[in-house]
Amino acid sequence: MIRKILLATLIAASACTMAFAASLDGKWKATFETQIGTQNYTYEFHVEGNKVTGTATNDNGRTQITEGKIDGDTITFVEAISFNGNDIRIKYTGKIDGDQIRFTRKVGDFATEELVAKRL
C-alpha cells in the first residue's frame, strides 16, 4: 500500500513539473528599473525535461541562457554579460504563475533586482 502511495506521489509530482515546463516554452517580456536605468528584456525559453535553454535579449544585445533548470514551478538560469569591459554573471530565480514569472536576479556581487516577465 505504501509503495502505491509513493508511486502515485512521484507520478503526480512529475506531471506537475511537466505542466510547468510545457507552460514555460516561448517568449516572455519584462521591463524593470536597475542601477543603470530601465531595462527592456525579452526572454525566449526552450524546455527539454528539466533543462532550460534559450536567449535573453535586451537593448544592448542577445545572450544565451546557461545553467537553466526547472523544478516544479521554479526556474533558474544564468545570463553572462560583458559591461564596460567587465564580465558579469546574472543569476535568475523565478516562480512561474500562469502567464507571468516573478524573478529575483542577482547581478554579480553588487545588486539584487526584482522583476516580472509576462508571456507574449
Question: Helix count, per DSSP?
Answer: 1
What is the CATH domain class? Mainly Beta
Indicate the overall shape: globular
Give a count of the beta strands, DSSP E runs of length 2 or more: 8
CATH-derived architecture: Beta Barrel
**What is the helix content?**
10-25%
Largest sheet: 8 strands, antiparallel, barrel
Radius of gyration of CA atoms, rounded to a whole number: 16 Å
Q: What is the structural class?
A: alpha+beta
Helix/strand order? HEEEEEEEE
CATH topology: Lipocalin
Distance between the termini: 45 Å
Number of domains: 1
The percent range for strand residues is over 45%
Physical arrangement of strands within the biggest beta sheet: 1-2-3-4-5-6-7-8
Mean pLDDT: 88
* Unreliable stretches: 6-10, 12-19
